[in-house]
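Before a computer can learn anything about folding, someone has to put a protein's shape into writing. The outcome of that step, for a single protein, is printed below:
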Amino acid sequence: MSRFFDLHGRIYAVLDWISNEMSEEVIKANRELSAYAAVSNDKTKLKELASLTKPNLTDILSFLPGRTKDGVKRYTDVLNEFDTYIDSPSDFTLKTIKDIHLQTTGNEKFELRTSKRILPIEVWENGIHDVLEFPVQTKPEDIEKKLQDFLKWFKQNYNIVNPIVLAAIAHFKIAEIHPFNDGNGRLARILGRGILYINEIDTSRILPIDNFYLKNQQFYYTLLDTSIKDKDLTHWIEFMTKGLLEAAIQTCQFILEVSGGSIDLINTSIIELTGIEQKIVKIIRENEYLNGSDIARELGKTRQYVNIIMKDLIEKGIVTKTGANTSVRYSLAKL
């Protein structure tokens, strides 16, 4: 966990340091990608959407069909407003779980599951679609008691158990009990992430741990099933911890790309850029292989002024220049 907390600290320190525009871009893109991963089983689509964000942090919602778009928006909205549902252990009640579930799914009324379920889990591996089946172990008549037992345990252990372990257990218990007919996966994920948030971990809800679950979806469900049957959460908690670390590493990589290579949190390397240099990096990142006139036009500055700035960016190792005279083109060096 020490590696995770180290990267987590670096990420949040740099979010306070970089420009508001860059910070907002990173947060928005990561939140939307993670929300898509939480409501979808399509890993191929996730990769496609992730590739769209890299050059210009496109609004991914515009690429989604209506139902998926609504699910992404609902998930993001609930996560962003999590502290209005739960801000302390006393807020963690059956009613709270009901409210979060209704808001996340868009269902109109609260109904616990009333029948046995065999979950048909759709998975995509290398473009191949498959359906896995996992019987739900909790009987319908045991759902409410198991939920109340968990809520009691949660309140008793909130200030005792490590918050990462607490979040992993909350995620697991909702998945194990499977209290509703639909939306249980989203509920489990959002409770886990929300518990981290109210414990001052990932307070901007930027770490895309849902991406990790989707990328490892078959292992996720198999491990969940094994942990339920064995009544041993050791490997589950290890998996959740690994997911957080990978999410932190992915966020560091994203910041590296958005900053044009100037902020490398993995290797603790930061090249300070002026405001105008940051704008130029953004222009080149979004367009690639521009000439000086193109950049000057975008900035509303003279070509001579831009040439001076470009020389500094080349010396800093951020930009490379190819060609000569009117054939000169600029690109980002580190990406």
Observations:
- The domain at 2-258 is CATH 1.10.3290.10 (Fic-like fold).
- The CA atoms of residues 165 and 262 lie 34 Å apart.
